[in-house]
Structures are given as C-alpha cells and as structure tokens.
Amino acid sequence: MNYRDEFPILSTRIGKRSLVYLDNAATTQKPRCVLEAARRYYEEQNSNIHRGAHYLSRLATEKHEEARETVASFLNAASSREVIFTSGCTAGINLVAQTLALSGLIGAGDEIVVTTDSHHSNIVPWQMLCERVGAVLRPVPLTPELRFDMEAFHRILSPATKLVSVPYISNALGAINPVAQIIADARRNNPATLVLVDGAQSTGHQLVDVQALGCDFYAFSGHKVYAPTGTGALWGRESVLEQLPPWLGGGEMISEVSFEKTTYNTLPFKYEAGTPNIGGNIVLAEALRFVQQVGVEKIDAHEQALTGRMFDGLKALGVHILGTREKRGALISVTVPGVHHYDLGTLLDQMGIAVRTGHHCCQPFMQSLGITGTTRYSFALYNTEEDVDAALAATERALDMLR
Ligand SMILES: Cc1ncc(COP(=O)(O)O)c(C=O)c1O
After folding, report:
1. Ligand 1 centroid to 144 CA: how many Å?
2. Rounded-to-integer distance, Cα 106 and Cα 98, Å
3. What is the pTM of this model?
4. Which domain holds residue 356?
5. What pLDDT score does 160 carry?
C-alpha cells in the first residue's frame, strides 16, 4: 500500500531529510481529494443551507444531507437521523453529557464508568455532569499487562451504573478495548445502562458497525480520519436521542418559536443549533469515501504490519513499550529509563521524524503508571516500512546521544 503521493504535505523537507510523519493519533494529513473537495465547495457550492430559495442554497443543502448519509453508511447507522454533525469527538461527548444533565435520567448517587486510560475528553465532561447532578465517576483499572480489567469492571457494575463510556482504542496506550463485550456486560447488568464509545482512535482504522456493537453513542473527530479540523459526528441511537432534550438553542433546532413557548425540530436537527460547518461536513464525507475506497480492513492490516515492525524494532532497542505485542491500535507509546520523553521527541524532530511526547491528554493514566509522559509513534494509511525503519534508526541515534 503506498498512498504517500496522494498527500502533498508529506513531501515537506525537514532540513535535508524528508518528513516522516508519525503523529497521526493527534491529527492526520489530508489527501488531494479532500483538499480538492474543500476548494470545490467554496468555489462552486458555498451557501447557507435549509430554507434557501435559491440554487446555491439547494445545492449546498443537498450536498450537506448527502454527507450525513455518507457518515451514516460509514458507521452502518440505521438512519441518517441518528447522525449529528459536531466539531469533533470532544464536542460529541460533551453533547451527550450536557443533554443527560438536563434530562434528569442521571441523578444523585448514579454512577458513570470510564476507563483509566481515557482521554481527558472522556473524563472531564462526565466529571462536570457528576458535579452538577451528584453522580459518581468510577474508573475501571487496567490489569498489570495494561489491558482493560474485565473482572474489576464486573465488580464496579451495579444497579447504580447509568452510563459506561469507553475509548474503542486508547490514544496513549494503543490498546483495543473489548468494546463489544463491555457493552454486552453493561446491558446484562442493567438493560437501561447507556454506553458511549469514544471512536477518536478507531474511526478509519477499524471497521465500525454501530448496530453490531450495540452501543448508544459513538463519537469521532474528522481531523483524525483525513478530514479538516472542526468536523466530526456523534451517532446516537434514535430511541435514546428522542428521549434527550436539546442542549444548544438557536436557529435550525426549532420547529416553532414564540415568546410563550418554543417547540423543537426533529432529529438530527434538534441538536444542530446555528449554521453548521457546511463545507467541513461535506469535505468530511469526501474523506470517509476516500477511506472506504482504500478499504478499512486493508488499512487495518497495513497499520498492524507497520505497528508490529515498529514494536519489534523498539523492543530490540531496549525501550519500555506500554502494553503487549497483540493486535493494537495504530500507535506505540514508549518510555526510556533516564531519558525524558521531550528530549527524545526533540532529537527525533531534528532528524525529520514527527512524534508526540507528553501525557497525551491522559493525565490520570500517566499518574496510574507513575510517569509524566511517553513518546508516541502513531501510524496512518500513508506510512510505509521505510518510515518505520527511519524512525527506528533515528530513535537509536537519539538514544545513543541521550543515554
Ligand atoms: C481517544 C481520544 N478521545 C478523544 C479525543 C479528542 O478528540 P478531539 O480533540 O479531536 O475532539 C482524542 C484526541 O486525541 C482521543 O485520542
């Protein structure tokens, strides 16, 4: 698989070296078809959508609602009414937390279960909800091998469990959580428990079928799946979304407004107050079509091969790798005794290798390990074996200088 040429930014030179971009878990680069779709939108389609009496407004509306269909089919949603466009994964999770706070479905003493390796986006919105309604946040610990601790999860589940929210793939560790089993067990404990899957690191890497998973919500960011920043979607099960109240008020989310009483629009519009990111959402659909054309299963196999090669190479260098060699997300986090992650990242940058260092917005996870951060190598469909080998050679050189 070689898609490097489809991504103009990958020809960037860092000094005399070509860029090796391994910061894909933070954000992915954009292929020509996505750049072209953005240009096309603003040159040929730009207009505000819905209720416009003119040609461009009808065209933009049609493209925007087609984009919603594309997202629905990408996630195998039962209906595009279940797809709410958001500015990203964080916005999707906050939408669920805020509407739940308003709904009265979660109250004092109820429990919300998350994983220890969650991104702050899957912790802080729930903490804010807990503070507001008096609910309690219950993190599930990891096993000593840094896997989701199913037994601990079973001990935490109780009649008070109202919501379980888990990352499909953790962004700092790379573990693929057993989401299907987590959802099934949460339901067995209490059929009314809601389950949200944080799909920030799985979308575009793993085949996602929200109906087969059986969750209630799935949130993802467009920019991590080859689309622009400020795009994304929240999928919600229609029967659940129907029970929840709107959150942001304004244009488009209403049916009738009077000073006495306002009634709300139907799904999904009741959650899309104001002018949406019309161009961004249309371009997001182009990115998802690109991923579908390449094939998610092919991307997964390619990334697994790269991640395996990187894992073995890093192990040979004697660094400490978080987690095991088994199938994982397209990323590897490492620590090196006596070497600060920032120093390693800085030296790698000087050799043209872009990685991310720090806590990766997972401070509670870092605290559980007693570390302040890691160096993270993360992959996308355009990375190659040469990228892996260049990153390994650069890591070896950097460690020779630092150790
Ligand atoms: C697992 C996970 N969840 C949530 C997020 C938040 O995504 P965004 O900042 O695009 O909203 C990220 C971003 O890195 C992530 O990796």
Report:
1. 25
2. 11
3. 0.98
4. 4-22+295-402
5. 98
